[in-house]
Design brief:
CATH topology: Macrophage Migration Inhibitory Factor
CATH architecture: 2-Layer Sandwich
Strand order of the largest sheet: 2-1-3-4
Distance between the termini: 12 Å
CATH superfamily: Macrophage Migration Inhibitory Factor
Largest sheet: 4 strands, mixed
Helix content: 25-40%
Number of domains: 1
Radius of gyration: 16 Å
CATH class: Alpha Beta
Shape: elongated
Number of strands: 4
Number of helices: 2
Order of helices and strands: EHEEHE
Length: about 130
């Protein structure tokens, strides 16, 4: 059940197809083979209030947070975060070649004992994981 959430500066909405960015992250997560399809969730969270570096209003940011259930090997997680980040970076470089942007990512484990889940999505999916 990986949750990929990205906070982004509101000034990106006029410059970038954020749904396309979310789809790139989703596809990259699937390609890692580390996450079950039915568990992947990607969402963007607009930030209206922010101050970046020397306060230039043209600066932008995206901060990607990936949370997943504990128990996956460290090397697999390291490989996955780098693959997902690279896919996002490639998309941003192609679509924002002249925009100052700070793009960052972090992956962290969720303690399963402290995070109950309910997911009925699998019974509605046309494909299986």
């Amino acid at each position: 059940m990986p949750h990929l959430s990205f906070e982004y500066s509101a000034n990106l909405e006029a410059q970038l197809d954020l749904n396309a960015f979310a789809l790139v992250l989703h596809e990259a997560a699937i390609k890692t083979g580390l996450f079950p399809l039915a568990g992947i969730r990607v969402r963007g969270l607009r930030c209206d209030t922010y101050v970046i570096a020397d306060k230039d209003p043209s600066y932008t940011f995206i901060d990607l947070s990936i949370r997943l259930r504990e128990g996956r090997p460290a090397e697999a997680k390291k490989s996955a975060i780098h693959a997902i980040f690279e896919a996002g970076e490639t998309f941003l470089n192609a679509n924002l070649p002249d925009t100052p942007i700070a793009f960052s990512a972090e992956m962290r484990d969720i303690n399963a004992e402290l995070s109950p889940k309910m997911n009925t999505i699998r019974k509605y999916m046309q494909t299986s994981d």
